[in-house]
Amino acid sequence: MDKASPILCAGITMYSPLKHWGYTTGEKKTVGIVGVGGLGTMGIKIANALGHRVVAISTSANKEILAK
Q: What does the pLDDT read at residue 1?
């Protein structure tokens, strides 16, 4: 559980707003994720898994590979 807890915490942190704004059901949309770090990466993965088009927004060009 020690190893899974951070993933669960980040997962619910990113899943909750997607659910709140209606991105877990219905038609596929474009989702913008600001910040490609720990939470941002989780948000990209969840939104992508839900079938949405994901746009990663970052001020650092080195995050492009991570976002893809």
A: 67
Residues of the chain with pLDDT under 70: 1
Of 18, 58, 13, 6, the closest CA to residue 67 belongs to: 58
Give the integer Cα–Cα distance in Å for 30 and 6.
26
Q: What is the CATH number of domain 5-67?
A: 3.40.50.720
Angle, in degrees to the nearest 10, between helices 5-20 and 38-49: 60
Q: Considering just the CA atoms, what is the radius of gyration of the chain in Å?
A: 12
pTM of structure = 0.84
Domain boundaries, the chain: 5-67
CA distance 35 to 43: 10
